[in-house]
Design a protein that fits this description.
about 450 residues, alpha+beta, six-stranded antiparallel sheet, about 30% helix, about 20% strand
């Protein structure tokens, strides 16, 4: 059993993440897609619609790989699942689910990150869950890295797609309104934004596996279906990112990544149509279906999916901003602050009332980390029989804007200081790994101090 200090140091250690994005990978996806089409035809099932024009991500954006700490990956996962409805805690502490992987990853500077001995043992019993969740963490960390390089003057926010879409679509039959009736959709949106400018939106489809490259090819083919379920603007003109993270039991993990380019996804709208981000979202219904272009003067029937047309752009930018804010306040453990940012269909009621015993969280903790005061929530658990304390939160001044429904002020200030976000991975005074994101959120871990300290 590893010494607890060794475990914490390992979480803060930079390691390489292998990224595979080549023209050959596009061919492997097309082969996997053709095989799936043949199997569906044999079963007399309709062919699936897939994102077209997939291509490699330029080497200048991914290079030979990306350096991350395991703790940064878990922070990214925790932020992503804060509104996920994966657990029974009514969303009040969903993000703590990332902590179960505190000993699953290892790597050192100059090597590639891989599963640790504990991660391999866990994979024997929970392969699907582990590969799915770690796949989200690695894919979204890479997506943010790529888009930050591509748009250096913008901020990048990750928003759960289901939650954002529910503001005006009946995503499933359980939602009020006319259901989209289509089970394929991207898992996340990346909102690339700057104050006063129209956002750019990239649907993200991401999966993971413990099986090998051939399964990743199949997952990418499936991801192309999910990515094509949301059109923002013209037919097939929406850019997208598709990932499959290969997590072998023995050997380094590899993120297989492809992109679709396009002129869509930019939420340009007249100045008079701009929404006040500080105001609550209105909950309405957009009739489901994606409208293909006319052919020979005839307008085809809509195909299944979600179509964000120009008249919806101002609403969608509003929805993405408010949903992103809800994820931050939930990550900080503040249910009262989360409620105004969501509509009923998005899950507002999950943050009202009393949560289940032992799985709620309360925004009542304060710490200074890497020289920045943070407010948030804490969680105590045992790691190698030692009691440890995890803290998640948001920079105090930024959180005050969010808690007082000053979303515009939050975005102005968070964007202005994104370049000065700390890059250190360890805080000596805190005595543990720390990850700070440009959005002002933090995730930190340490051995629980004794009363004598």
């Amino acid at each position: 059993m590893k010494d607890i200090r060794e475990v914490l140091r390992q979480l803060a250690q930079q390691s390489n993440i292998a990224v595979h994005s080549t023209a050959r990978l596009v061919g492997e996806l097309e082969t996997a897609a053709a095989k799936d089409d043949d199997e569906r035809e044999e079963k007399e099932l309709d062919a699936l619609r897939r994102k077209q024009g997939l291509q490699l991500i330029p080497a200048k954006e991914v290079g030979e790989g990306v350096q991350l700490t395991p703790w940064k990956v878990l922070h990214t996962l925790g932020r992503a699942i804060a509104l996920s409805r994966r657990g029974a805690g009514r969303g009040l502490a969903e993000h703590w689910g990332c902590l179960k992987y505190s000993q699953a990853l290892e790597g050192t500077l100059g090597t590639f990150m891989a599963l640790s001995a504990e991660g391999r043992d866990t994979a024997d019993y929970y392969k699907a869950l582990q590969s799915d969740e770690l796949g989200v963490g690695f894919a979204l960390a890479l997506a943010k890295h790529v888009l930050a390089r591509r748009f250096p003057d913008h901020s990048v926010s990750i928003v759960p797609a289901d939650t954002a879409l529910r503001a005006r679509f009946a995503v499933t039959g359980r939602d009020s309104g006319t259901s989209v009736g289509y089970r394929y959709r991207p898992q996340y949106f990346a909102e690339v934004w700057a104050p006063g400018q129209p956002s750019r939106v990239f649907p993200i489809a991401c999966k993971g596996n413990h099986s090998g490259a051939s399964v990743s090819h199949t997952q990418l083919a499936s991801g192309a279906v999910h990515a094509d379920a949301v059109h923002i603007g013209g037919w097939t003109d929406t850019p997208a990112l598709i990932f499959s993270t290969e997590i072998p039991v023995d050997g380094p993990m590899t993120v297989h990544a492809l992109q679709a380019c396009g002129n869509g996804g930019k939420l340009s709208h007249p100045a008079g149509a701009a929404r006040d981000l500080d105001k609550e979202l209105d909950e309405d219904n957009i009739f489901p279906g994606i409208q293909p272009p006319a052919q020979d003067g005839e307008t085809p029937e809509p195909v299944p999916g979600f179509h964000i047309q120009p008249g919806h752009y101002a609403w969608f930018q509003h929805a993405l901003a408010r949903t992103g804010a809800a994820g931050l306040t939930a990550f900080a453990g503040d249910a009262d602050a989360t409620v105004p940012y969501l509509t009923n269909r998005q899950g507002r009621k999950r943050y009202e009332g009393i949560s289940h015993a032992a799985i709620g969280s309360v925004q009542d903790a304060e710490h200074e980390l890497l020289g920045i005061p943070f407010v948030g929530t804490d969680h105590v658990f045992r790691l190698n029989r030692t009691r440890v304390e995890a803290f998640s939160g948001v920079a105090q001044d930024l959180f005050e804007h969010l808690a007082n429904n000053r979303l515009t002020s939050y975005r102005d200030e968070a964007h202005a200081r994104r370049a000065s976000s700390p890059t250190d991975t360890w805080d000596d005074e805190w005595d543990g790994p720390v990850s700070v994101h440009p959005d002002g959120s933090v995730l930190a871990l340490r051995v629980l101090p004794t009363k004598d300290h």
